[in-house]
Amino acid sequence: GDSGGPFTCGGELAGVVTVSKRNPPAPTVFLRL
């Protein structure tokens, strides 16, 4: 998922690339920020 930034803060499994809910959609990866 997307938490408002270029990276997620949680919610996905580590290493899984997801499509963010931002516009325009962009790939996001799990990182503990």
Strand order of the largest sheet: 1-2
Strand content: 15-25%
Number of strands: 2
The helix-strand sequence is EE
Give the proportion of residues in helices. under 10%
Assembly of the depicted chains: single chain
Q: How would you classify the helix and strand content by structural class?
A: mainly beta
Topology record:
Elements lengths: L16 E3 L7 E3 L4
Antiparallel strand pairs: 1-2
Explained architecture:
It comes from Bracon brevicornis. One of its GO terms (molecular function) is serine-type endopeptidase activity. The chain is mainly beta. The protein has no helices and two strands. The protein has a two-stranded antiparallel sheet. The protein is globular, with a radius of gyration of 8 Å.
Highlighted features:
33 residues, globular, 2 strands, mainly beta
Summarize the structure.
This protein has 33 residues and is mostly beta strands.
